[in-house]
Amino acid sequence: MAQTKAIAKFWITTSDLLEHVLTHEKRLQTVEPTKDVRVVHQLVSDLYCRYVQLCRNLERCFDQTLQVQKRAVIQTLLEAAHTRLLEFRTKLQEIELSEFVYVDGALQEQHLIPDDVLAVRPCYFPARRPAHLQSLLDSQKLLPFGPASGSDSEQTSSDESEQEAETVHQPPTINRPAVQRDRKRERLTAALALITAHEKARQARVKQTNFRLHPDRYYPKPIDEEIVDVPYEFFYRPGQLMLYPVKRTVYSWDFRMRKKDVAQFAYYAPPGWEERAPVVDVRTADQDLKSKRREEEDKAAELAEAAAEAAKRLEEAIERMRLKHATAKVQRYWRRYQVRKAQQKLRYERSKFLGLFEDLERTVSDAPAVEEVRAARRDRKPEFDRTFLEAIVDEKARILRSRGPALLEDITDFVRAWFRQWYEEAHAFDVIPEPFRGGTVLIVRGETLTPMEYLEQERQKMLEKLKSAEQKKKEAEAKKAAKEREQEKKREEKNRAKEEAREKRARERREGKTYDFREPEFVSNAYLTLEETLERYRKDWAFINELDNVHDLPVMEWITLEKFAEVHQELHAEVHELLRSERELLQIALCKDEKLKYKQPKPKKPPRAKGAKGKRRKEPADPTADLTLEAMVSELVERNVIKSCPKRTFDDFVGDFNYAAFERRNYLEQDPPPGMGEVRTALRSYLLGMGPLLAPKPKSICLLAPSGYGKTLLLEAICHETGSVLFDLSVDTCGPIEPNNMAYFLQLVLRTARVMQPSVIAVEDVHRAFYKKVPAADQPLDPTKLGKHLCKLIVKQLKPEDRVLLVGTTSQPALAKVGPLKKCFEKFLLLPRPDYGSTVLLWQCALRRYPTVPRDFELSALAKVTVGYSAGQIMRCVREVLTVRRRMQFGRKPLEARELLDHFLTGTEAGPQYPIGEKEYERFVKWHRKVDKLAKQRAKMVRERELLAEQLKAKAAGAKK
């Protein structure tokens, strides 16, 4: 219950945040149109940051909400918010002319950090498919997915982690040096040990016999001397603590005395002992002493009474003093505790600020516990869905049972009254509308023809019959001329719109684009959906207290109204046939009375679904239509197309962000390269449509990078985070397939991928399918047969609602034909080179895998020298240098950065290893500009800026002369 209330409160807070974001967007629509790109970038980036936080909150609400009706509202809002978020990101990409966008200005205004606007994995990932499909997939024995080339150049940090995991299950074999055994010495040592054991046993038997037979000789005699005194001394120093809390014994105690002064003994005070004067025996019996004794006794009684009162007052004073001392002691210890706690916090903050240690992360025990609670609540969703459907069925049955007969009579009485009205006013009976047009519902709503309108139509028909041929001809010509004028007007408006659009594009090229926040590119359907859904939610849920619904029960009033309307519609369909036959009988009787010939009306058929040109759409023949799902999956598994994907995440793609890119782009007008960490945000934004919610997504993505940059890792992360089935369509997999069967094979893959969605169709080394010139080694495989059909049978067949993604990777794009490859992929993502920050993180990730490596290992100089080395090279270097033998030597020979650097220079058999050069990487950049529209436009803009700067510089130099 507490969790339900917490989720309800969080949803109320999220709805308030949504209303605040929409209010902010409404204010944005009042901004005047502007051509200043920086102003537009600032406003759009501000909204982008707000929508990122809104989507995170809505995702959590959708994940943890069990009430079915509220969850439907949140789902609609989340889909629209995701669409709106991607629209703003696309707009930022168009402004910055790059796939990587930077919103540092908005972060500063809203007091956020970069982690607050990073794209994270939605809570509904990985997507769940139906149980029968998942069981079918689990029953197959799938081969693991690996790089097509079989080399380890693509292995990055995650590949190393997998190898480490394998070594845990399979202990490594260590080759120890062989030692020659001395068999003769081993036999002598064993014989000596045996003789020694028997000799010790013999001596023990002899000793036991002697003790048994001659006890007086061998057993020791007892000491007869009486112990007179045991000297005992106790040394005590004031303030010295005892090692053991023991009682001390007073050896000089005289137990015959009732009184003993033990005040000076520091460790023992016997309770119940009092000071008492020594007993004095009085042997004289003089009578004079009796009176003196009585007087002394009276005085002693008075003194005892006074002493008792004084002792009582003393005890009270001592008690008050003891309480004061206790209070002062409690306060003193509490103040010391507070000071010590403040000092510890100050010391922690200072050490954290100085970077002496990393900030504390969430403990291992807390994260699984929180995720377990959320997963348990998430797993209850099917139960609530099933209960909701049962409630719908029961409510519909109740309405049919209780209200069905009355509704049926009401509908028939209303339609019969409609017949009577027509007969009385028009002396005719109108035709009941067909069910596909509304049927008797239109009669109840009053949307049919009235008797007066019918009489007017009949009068017009009679007038038409009385017209001459010339009048009909003139009216036809007039109608034709009016129709031609209308068409001419539409053509003129269309041409004028084209001319205005052409002039607008020319003006934008000449003067720059004008951004109007009231145009549809900013006020999209997603924004309207958010407004309408939130307004409808406020209206519908205004009188419902969500905090009181601790059991997440559905609102039965809404189910009753909805099912009542559905039952009413179904009863209309049932009544239609009965009333149509009654109408025919009435029409026949009317024709007999009027002595007219009865013409039975022809039933109208519903209109057919037409294509774009008004013709019926012809579906292409599917050669896989006769195959069952089990047969298709089995065939693809036999061909090694469906493969198992290792567990990877985008967090395994180690890399930092380019924190200076915003200032360099917006203020210095430079073109800085993106950081490796920004690749994760870009790819995650592409994958929002791979989940159970509707969101825009590309059909295909191509990853470009040199070998070792982590393309395969990103492909596996896409499959694992989305829970997709991996279909391997690399050239080696498709090699055994005949060219004539390639179309059938790709249709089989596409159909299976749609059934098992979400799915990822992977093509490793996709440049081999689009070779300009096929190498001799690949000619037996005929790799181009895949490229001929890939775009037509895979990419073009994908629909926006299909959760199927085509992902290609290539490290040699220059060998492929640019045109066909560009048609096949919508997005081309060039992975950036590792900069200094990413190189530091890569070294840290590689070295921290070994616990014996010191955490204060200096990496700054090593990272500065190795900037540009790929992730695969760094991981391989650490794996080959930190062998088991080298790690065993850490105690006497600490690790040095020189060893890792020397491995790149002299540690491999193939010779020194160098990072990818600038010229080699520039080839990837140039090829990327050919296929990516934004990259091409940005390169053009940078050239224009450089040319303008040179012209201004030359003009300034001429002015000085």
Q: Could you give the topology of this structure?
A:
Layout lengths: L1 H27 L8 H28 L3 H29 L7 H7 L20 H8 L4 E2 L12 H13 L13 H31 L1 H4 L68 H67 L12 H13 L2 H46 L13 H6 L5 H16 L2 H43 L13 H16 L15 H39 L34 H10 L3 E3 L16 H6 L10 H10 L13 E5 L6 H12 L2 E4 L2 H4 L7 H14 L3 E6 L19 H12 L8 E7 L7 H7 L2 E4 L5 H12 L12 H6 L5 H11 L2 H5 L8 H10 L11 H14 L1 H28 L1
Parallel strand pairs: 1-2, 3-6, 3-7, 4-5, 5-6
Antiparallel strand pairs: 2-4
In summary, what is this structure?
With about 950 residues, the chain is mostly helical.
Radius of gyration: 47 Å
Instruction: Indicate the mean pLDDT.
Output: 82
Total E-strand runs:
7
Q: Which structural class matches the secondary elements?
A: mainly alpha
Bin the helical content: 55-70%
User: Based on CA inertia axes, which overall geometry fits?
Assistant: extended
- What is the number of helical segments per DSSP (H or I, 4+ residues)? 31
Lateral arrangement of strands in the main beta sheet: 1-2-4-5-6-3-7
Head-to-tail CA distance between termini: 83 Å
Largest sheet: number of strands, sense, barrel closure: 7 strands, mixed
In terms of quaternary structure, the protein is single chain
Please indicate the percent range of residues in DSSP E strands (runs of 2 or more): under 5%
Low-confidence stretches: 148-177, 223-228, 246-251, 253-285
